[in-house]
Specification:
123 residues, alpha+beta, 4-stranded antiparallel β-sheet, 33% helix
């Protein structure tokens, strides 16, 4: 997993310490700030799963200082927080990528990032 469309994975983080596990099994890695988008989180997320791991991915940027409750005003944050095992107030205090991870787990990637029109493979 050395490259993604010509970029190194340097600086990316994930749910798991191992980025390959985060990307292929959990379906999400992120980087805080990147060239031209220093005030955004850059997410790479899984869009197609073969039953064992994610095989195709897409990307999205979300502002580091995004107002989560406004960004996804339609979401039931009480339910998502309960799903994640915490109170809404505690849930909303987490880092944005962790909130996004739980939102995807609850609603799916299309509801959080929109449709994926040009998915790519990572080898």
């Amino acid at each position: 997993m050395e490259k993604y469309k010509g970029f190194k994975y340097k600086g990316f983080e994930g749910i798991d310490v191992d980025l390959e596990t985060s990307l292929f099994e959990q379906g999400l890695i992120w980087k805080k700030g990147h060239v031209g988008h220093e005030k955004d989180y850059h997410f790479i997320y899984g869009v197609k799963h073969n039953g064992m791991e994610y095989t195709h991915f897409d990307w999205a940027d979300i502002a580091i200082d995004a107002d989560i409750e406004k960004e996804w005003a339609w979401a039931d944050f009480d339910s998502v927080a309960k799903f994640a095992g915490m109170a809404k107030e505690e849930f909303l205090k987490m880092e944005l990528p962790l909130i996004v991870f739980d939102l995807i787990a609850y609603y799916g990637h299309e509801e959080i990032f929109g449709g994926s029109y040009y998915p790519f493979e990572v080898k």
